[in-house]
Specification:
The chain is α+β, with helices and mostly antiparallel strands. The chain has one domain. Helices cover 20% and strands 12% of the residues. It contains two helices and six strands; from the N terminus they run αβαβββββ. A hairpin with a 5-residue loop joins β2 (119-121) and β3 (127-129).
């Protein structure tokens, strides 16, 4: 989901947690102790852990990839005109907007679009990280924004914490 503020993203995570709790109460068996699920935005450290895994890879798929994928880009991010020469198929260079999940390759944890596509809101208020379809590769550092600003280049994903009982 894109074009939401940090507060809206945080509120969605809380709303999702409540909906899952309601579902558990309606569907849990008496002798079953359900797991507790809580949704939240990722911390910067969690984002970096997922990001660093893919950031070490080259921007373009080379000899290590399947023949049909060689020369394609790994991420949906803005490129400078000089970079298009490195792309085998210019149509794979980047999208003009967000790309659907699984349009590009996942990292080793099977997390898609952690680099590029959209910058992501983090748990730390007003903070987002990662480049987007609108920013060049070099803009992958954490950026600060005002809480009330939304953008089609900023979105979020929820982290799900699972525990044997409620905290």
């Amino acid at each position: 989901m894109v074009n939401v503020t940090w507060q809206q993203a945080s509120d969605f995570c809380a709303w999702r947690t409540e909906r899952v709790k309601e579902w558990q109460l309606e569907n849990a068996k008496k002798d079953e102790v359900p797991y507790y699920f809580a949704y939240r935005l990722p911390t910067y450290e969690e984002f970096q852990l997922m990001y660093d895994d893919i950031a070490e890879l080259p921007d373009f798929i080379g000899e290590e990839g399947k023949r049909k994928d060689r020369g394609k880009v790994r991420y949906n991010q803005k490129r400078e005109p000089s970079q298009y020469a490195e792309v085998a198929d210019e149509s794979s260079a980047s999208a003009d907007l967000t790309a659907p999940v699984k349009s590009y390759w996942p990292n080793s944890h099977e997390v898609y679009n952690i680099k590029g596509n959209v910058s992501e809101w983090l748990m730390e208020e007003n903070t987002h990280a990662g480049g987007s379809w609108k920013t060049p590769f070099a803009a992958d550092e954490s950026l600060k924004l005002m809480t009330d600003k939304a953008s089609p280049a900023i979105g979020f994903r929820c982290v799900c914490e699972v525990a044997a009982s409620a905290p």
